[in-house]
Amino acid sequence: MDNLDTKIAHATKWSSFAEIAARFVLPISNMVLARLLTPEAFGVVATVTIVITFANVFQDAGFQKYIIQHEFASEADYDQGANVAFWTNLALSLVLWAIIVVFRNPIASLIGDSRIGVAVAVASFSLPIFAFSSIQTAHYRRHFAYKKLFWVRIITSSIPLALTVPLAFILRSYWALIIGTIARSLVETVVLYIGSSWKPRFFYSFQILKKMLSFCVWTLFESISIWLTGNASVFIVSRFLGTEMVGFYKTSISTVTSVTGIVSAATLSVLFSALSRLQNNENRFKAVFYNYQKTVAMFVIPLGMGIWLFNDLFVRILLGQNWAYCSSFIGMFALAMAVSIPTSSFFSELYRAKGKPKISMLAQVIYLGFLIPTIAVASQYGFTAVAITTTVDMFVFMIIHFSIVKIYFKLKISVMLKNITSVLAVSSIMAVVALVLQSISQDFAFELISIVICAVVYIGLLIAIKPFRETLKTSELTAGAYAKVTRLFKARK
Q1: What is the pTM of this model?
Q2: Residue 441, Cβ neighbours under 10 Å: how many?
Q3: Structural domain harbouring 321
């Protein structure tokens, strides 16, 4: 492997470690919080988050992605660009924070709950905090410093257990979640600054800002469209079905993404950094993309299928019986998400890495034209209709992305479909085993054993089938781990 391959593999390893470690901690805190707080409390936080994430879009304005993607002429040029991005972010965050505080009550009424104006104002304090961490995070990712980000992730992941859960015991309200989120952002910012080799200095240039804006404006539009696709359905559910249903809806989605995020969050940022460095090498660019897509599919698709098959058990463990209402939605969404990550999510990183956020925005706008009316209509028929529509809409989004990458980037749809369908076929064998085991018994302990059996069956199939075995041996994501496991097995043998 050349130097970039080594960096990719090393970055993916530490990014994966960070996500796996965090996903062990976060479900524990979520399991406790879901039993202490009502779905309505989670719904309030989900509604407040709509405002904060929308403000974040304007605050960052694409500067973080610019710092990662852009090819700077020198380190001095990079330092100047990073400083301009930092001070611009900070100024925007202070302006947006002031606007939200002043208009907190009208904003609360707009998003469907006039009682939460103070909560909106307090939660928006995270905006200036984010301004201090955004460019630092970009600096780490640009230089593939994922080992340092691993420690940041570990430290910040402890905040829910250390602070949010005790506050939930005391307050029994959504304030525990809001305060915990702000505290986590503060800790993340401090840790990033302590470990960073880059520190902001008092430098600003409107000429450099002007150069950035050609990329950042389109990235801003893209980010707005992404925000809309991620939050439009939450806003519609809030308006038509109320805060409690928002709690069920948003918590279902976040619970699934917290698990599938072990794979997606560990790889997407590394993929973007890698593709950005390869944007002018077309053959390597496509090879790395295909390789990532197939390897990630091998992990995330069986994970999503497993959640779908054992959705009742999944909800019982992570959320408790009070959330049984959304078990079916969690199962459906997990299966759709598992296919969406190596397709829709990866395509978005490809667009940005090529410096073409306007194409990503095009995909989002087309999708919004389908998403908003379908969710609005489904909301008239209740939560189940919304759940089914949300899942179907995700597959529509995949079709849109496939069409765009074929037209603009000349990627082979046949290769991408083969990467996905081959994994689906092997996962289906695992699913048959699961269904047979479920027909024997659905006792809690037996279902846990069934999950282990299914995992062993799937891993055995990957090792037994040559194309999958070769992928594990040669992929930047898994080659090192595969070699170590093989050597360990041979040594013991």
Answers
A1: 0.68
A2: 12
A3: 3-492
Do 246 and 34 contact (CB within 8 A), yes or no?
no
Question: Residue 217 phi/psi, 5° resolution?
Answer: -60, -45
Q: How far apart are CA 426 and CA 421, in angstroms?
A: 9
Token pair 């054992």 is found at 310
Residue type, 291: N
Residuewise pLDDT in 10s, the chain (493 residues): 456 666 666 666 556 555 566 556 666 676 677 777 777 787 787 778 778 877 777 666 677 777 877 778 788 888 888 898 889 888 888 988 999 999 989 888 877 777 888 988 998 888 888 888 888 888 887 777 777 777 777 778 777 778 888 888 888 888 888 888 888 888 888 888 887 788 888 898 888 888 877 767 767 777 777 778 778 888 888 888 877 788 888 888 888 887 777 776 666 667 776 777 777 777 888 888 888 888 888 888 999 999 999 999 888 888 877 788 888 999 999 999 888 888 877 787 788 777 777 787 888 888 888 889 999 999 998 889 999 999 998 888 888 888 888 887 777 888 888 888 888 888 999 999 999 999 988 888 899 999 999 999 998 888 888 777 777 766 655 555 555 555 545 555 5
* Best CA proximity match to 45, nearest among 158, 165, 175: 175
Q: 53-57 long-range contacts, Cβ below 8 Å, gap at least 24?
A: 53/227, 53/230, 53/231, 54/227, 54/231, 55/96, 55/97, 55/100, 55/124, 55/127, 56/127, 56/130, 57/220, 57/223, 57/224, 57/227
Please tell me the distance from the alpha carbon of residue 310 to that of residue 328, in angstroms, as a whole number: 10
Report d(CA 381, CA 49) in Å as an integer: 25
- Cα 87 → chain centroid: 26
Q: How many domains, the chain?
A: 1
Which of these, 322, 265, 308, 231, lies nearest to 33 by C-alpha position?
A: 322
Give which of 287, 400, 241, 314 is closest to 8, Cα–Cα: 287
Report how far apart, in Å, the C-alpha atoms of 300 and of each of 26, 305, 306, 342, 415 are: 19, 9, 10, 8, 18
